[in-house]
Amino acid sequence: MARIAGVNIPTQKRVVIALQYIHGIGPKFANDICEKVGIPAERRVQQLTDAEVLQIRETIDRDYLVEGDLRREVIMNIKRLMDLGCYRGLRHRKGLPVHGQRTHTNARTRKGPAKAIAGKKKS
């Protein structure tokens, strides 16, 4: 079991796929990392040598913002918007959609379960 950036990546999968288990690394960054280190796309994690795993780990630490640091930065960005009191910050504060989606219907994921309206009668 290879451990990179504090995450145990699966050993049976290809390296490009396994790297995507790390928060902040998607398909593009995974391919970029494999190219930088010089690992073929079809290589599996269990076939990697310790030196290659170390190279991958050093590349990620040096060039990419991942896991805890990335989560912290995103939370700080949201907190900054909320402290400013800008429109996006207010939407975050109220727990409503931020990117202009409609809320008259839908938006149940952000708003939570529907609340019953008192006094409304069925006809």
TrEMBL record:
Residues 95-123 are annotated as: Disordered. The keyword Methyltransferase does not apply. InterPro entries: Rbsml_uS13_C (IPR027437), Ribosomal_uS13 (IPR001892), Ribosomal_uS13-like_H2TH (IPR010979), Ribosomal_uS13_bac-type (IPR019980), Ribosomal_uS13_CS (IPR018269). The keyword Zinc-finger does not apply. One of its GO terms (biological process) is translation. Keywords: Ribonucleoprotein, Ribosomal protein, RNA-binding, rRNA-binding, tRNA-binding. SUPFAM superfamilies: S13-like H2TH domain. One of its GO terms (molecular function) is tRNA binding. Pfam families: Ribosomal_S13 (PF00416). It comes from the Bacteria. GO terms for cellular component: cytosol; small ribosomal subunit. Located at the top of the head of the 30S subunit, it contacts several helices of the 16S rRNA. In the 70S ribosome it contacts the 23S rRNA (bridge B1a) and protein L5 of the 50S subunit (bridge B1b), connecting the 2 subunits; these bridges are implicated in subunit movement. Contacts the tRNAs in the A and P-sites. NCBIfam families: uS13_bact. Belongs to the universal ribosomal protein uS13 family. Part of the 30S ribosomal subunit. Forms a loose heterodimer with protein S19. Forms two bridges to the 50S subunit in the 70S ribosome. PANTHER family: 30S RIBOSOMAL PROTEIN S13/40S RIBOSOMAL PROTEIN S18 (PTHR10871), SMALL RIBOSOMAL SUBUNIT PROTEIN US13M (PTHR10871:SF1). This is Small ribosomal subunit protein uS13. It comes from Hyphomicrobium sulfonivorans.
